[in-house]
Amino acid sequence: MNRMRSAAVAVALVGSLLGASGVAHAATWSSSDKWGTWSNGGYTVRNNIWGSGAGFQSIWANSYSNWGVWANHPNTGGVKSYPHSAKMINQRLSSLSRLSSSFNVSRPSAGAYATTYDIWADNHAYEIMIWMNKQGAVGPIGSRQTTATVGGHTWDVYRGSNGSNAVFSFIRTSNTNSGTVDVLAVLKWIQARGWYGDVTVGDAQFGFEITSSSGGMNFASNSFSITT
Questions:
Q1: Which whole number is the average pLDDT over 182-204?
Q2: 158 φ, ψ (degrees, to nearest 5)
Q3: Annotated catalytic residue: which of 60, 80, 120, 127?
């Protein structure tokens, strides 16, 4: 019954979020399945509830660009989910002349999460995370290497491993809810330090890495795109 109530609340909040002039209407696609997936415009939108101890989360989407979740994850440690929109690049770094992305999000002022890109290379051997904002008790994997201005922003750069792959994290030194990132410049900055070679860039994802959102919180991508 509690789960049913949560689902009802999620639907109501989604309708309110999407409605214009107070008129609620349904999203083009929605799912409360932990692995719920929808393809649109060459992108894939995923609910992606993967962490242990996760609560309820419902995803909605009008397009790959405009989507969001209502999430009610407990106030415990560890990432619970990473709802996101993704585009497969599948090109060598040396063959890319452009890889940039623009975004605009709405996010809660409580909870614990990061709004982040997650870019994979060489068949998941390398993970590049680009945090645009963060809230609450969250932090990157590894140790801080330096502060760098690259890709149109200034970051604290971390390097480490999650036990399965190398992780490079770029944490923006101040939070922002919108902007454009020159992702290719970030990827080449890593290469210039010898941390990897001419890797094949795979899935480029953007979304919300949620650790906790107790009581239920709304996260929304108002717009998002990747340009190559």
A1: 98
A2: -120, 150
A3: 127
Query: Which of helix, strand or coil describes residue 25?
Result: coil
- Domains of the chain listed by start with CATH number: 2-227 (2.60.120.180)
Q: And the tokens for 126?
A: 């390398």
pTM given for the model: 0.90
φ and ψ at 15, to 5 degrees? -60, -40
Return d(Cα 23, Cα 15) in angstroms, integer: 8
Catalytic residue among 11, 81, 118, 209: 209
pLDDT digits (tens, 9 = 90+) for 24-59: 468 999 999 999 999 999 999 999 999 999 999 999
Residue 111 clears pLDDT 70, i.e. is over it = yes
Closest CA to 169 of 138, 130, 134: 130
Report the share of the chain in percent with pLDDT over 90: 89
Closest to 87 (Cα-Cα) out of 70, 65, 68? 65
DSSP string, 1-23: -HHHHHHHHHHHHHHHHH-BTTB
The secondary structure of residue 35, as a DSSP letter, is T
User: What is the DSSP pairing of strand 166-172 with strand 126-135?
Assistant: parallel
Sign of CA dihedral 66, 112, 74, 168: positive
Told to judge if 127 belongs to the known catalytic residues of this protein, a careful annotator would answer yes
Residues making up the chain, counted from first to last: 228
Catalytic status, residue 134:
no
Tokens of 22: 């107070």
Rounded CA-CA distance 224/25 in Å is 21
Q: How many of the other CB atoms lie within 10 Å of CB of 210?
A: 31
